[in-house]
Amino acid sequence: MLLPRTLEEVVLAVPARDYDRVVAGLAVEGIFHVDTPPQGVKGEVDRSYRSLLTQASERSSRIRQYFELAGVEPYRVSGVEVEVGGWEESFRRYLEKYSEVEKFYSGLLEEYSEAESRLKELLDIEARISPVSHVDADIARLYSSRAFDFAVYYGSYWEGLEARVGEIVSRVGGLAVVEPSGGYVVVAVAVPKGALSKVSPEILGLNLSIYTPPEGVPGSPKKAMEYIREEKGRLGGRLARIQEMASERLGELAEFYTVVSAFENIFRFLVSTLRRGETRIVRGFVDVRDSRRLRGILDKMTRGSYVILSLGVRRGGETPTPSKVDLPQFLKPFSRVVELYGYPDPNEIVPTAFLAVTLPLTFALMFPDAGHGLLVLLFSIFYLRRVSRDWAYVLAVMGGASIVSGLLAGEVFGPLVSKMLGLPELWLRLGLETPPYAMPTYAIDHGEEELVPTLVYRALNVSLFMGAFMLSFGTLLGVVNGVIKRDWAGLVESRLPRFLLFASITSPFLVYMDAGEAGSVLRQALLELGGDSLAAKLVLAGSLLGLVWMLLAGPILYMLEGHSPLAGLANSFLEAYESLLMLVGNIPSFLRIMALALAHSSLVFVVYYLTVMIMQGGILADVVGALLYVGGNLAVAGMEGLLAFAHASRLHFYEWFSKFYSGTGVPYTPIRVEGVRIKIAGQTF
């Protein structure tokens, strides 16, 4: 779970007569990761399979577009049987079998693309017409007049604009109408034929833009806007109908996808196979736990007529090795977040298990409202689950974490609902003056403004503790990765001294969990050379040791290797400078946890305050206030939820992963035909 699996690199040689059976058997079992052909072995690759692989990959990509059209995540079905004579002939036969399904979805996709393109075109036209949308005159017809030149300009209104335009137009014997409207202005100009080119540059110089009537809509801007609104409604309905039709044949589409994916995997195997006379040779990787199983499959398919050459058991090394990551089912969805940064290298810790804890926790601290957390949870279950089950799971966990942090903050859809549920009284009965993670707005709402500094200070402590923990833990994981990789030079030169430096500076925040106490220790350590405090002296000693170690390790290692120590000194100086820069930048970066939590509670409090002000004037005012409260909460939850997710991800990718995680690995992707039984020469696998 914390490290990729150990793999065995093998070369297989089997008789040509049994090779299709071997391919089918390995594909069904899904335990063999095929790689490039072995170096130094003579033979040739059947190039026809490259073309077939390209065709299968393109088909799979197109089918995924069809699933996207229906608004669901691509999926395969089980129990599909594929009968194989020759691989190429069978592939083309199954393409023909599902040609009607493909034609149906291809037509829908083309129709959807056309409607979507037209909708985007109308939105662009709408944006161009918007400044003059109140004008109810056929401007397009006036533009095409043969008797005079006509143009419409628009922009911001300013005092004296009308006189200036009139002066410019009068010089050529023309007329101008200036119509201010809500801070903007529309200027219509009519001048003798051929005179527009003389006055237009001057008018444009007044910070105005010229309006060009768009084609394909009525010439009157007002009528054009009405037409666009009608067309948008019609196109929206058309797009919805297409998506509905795409959902009607998902079963057939999933079966088609299952078959094409199976052939794509088979062809990926075949293009990496060397042909040498009557022997077929392929190189790849297998999990050491499946080595005996691999040999059993080969023995069964070839009746013992095979050769398997083991090139070694390894996790990484000089030979590029894929990474096989085994995770419990409840952690697998979080690997999608990790893979946004990169796939784990075979010789480094897989951070998924840690991220599954720290990401929801960080998000929840930024988004402390049980009601808004519930909205995230419901959004994941009822909408996102149809699009991506993995992301739905991740967001559901994050929403659940926010429900907990919201209860700890005493917030459920802001103060109004919290009071209705009796949440403040609950914490009082538990003997607490305020909820454990209450924001300053809680104190303001309860008339205890004197507690505001205390609550801000509490949020500050939480943010700095999280930052100190993640930074020190990240550099520690960097040390562990150095040991796993046996990168002894890197350990001595940078990883160990960096951990010592980070651990020394961040330890006061972890030990005291109080920004004031930690700041006092750091002040004594850095400004008073330790002062009278033992803790400050330890911080100073650790920091200086880390920096001196970092500066001297490089030159010493370079000198031991027979190189100039000056080159090592330059490298060490840059390493020390980068580490100090990280310290100065990374720790304050975690203050965004406090900033987003305060912003979230403040926005909800503003909605609450406005609602209370409005709900003072009878039933109608109560209805308006209730609508404002509901709408405001939805808006804040949506906006702040996106911001909290973005910033929580940033803290992990840039502040944390940069300390230990490279993400440069290649995934272990064994040839696998999910849900498919392959039938060859009367035998089913």
UniProtKB/TrEMBL annotation:
Xref: PANTHER family: V-TYPE PROTON ATPASE SUBUNIT A (PTHR11629:SF63), VACUOLAR PROTON ATPASES (PTHR11629)
Protein family per UniProt: Belongs to the V-ATPase 116 kDa subunit family.
Membrane topology of the entry: Multi-pass membrane protein
Known function: Component of the A-type ATP synthase that produces ATP from ADP in the presence of a proton gradient across the membrane.
Compartment annotation: Membrane
GO biological process, one term: vacuolar acidification
Name of the molecule in the record: A-type ATP synthase subunit I
Keywords, ordered alphabetically: Hydrolase, Ion transport, Membrane, Transmembrane, Transmembrane helix, Transport
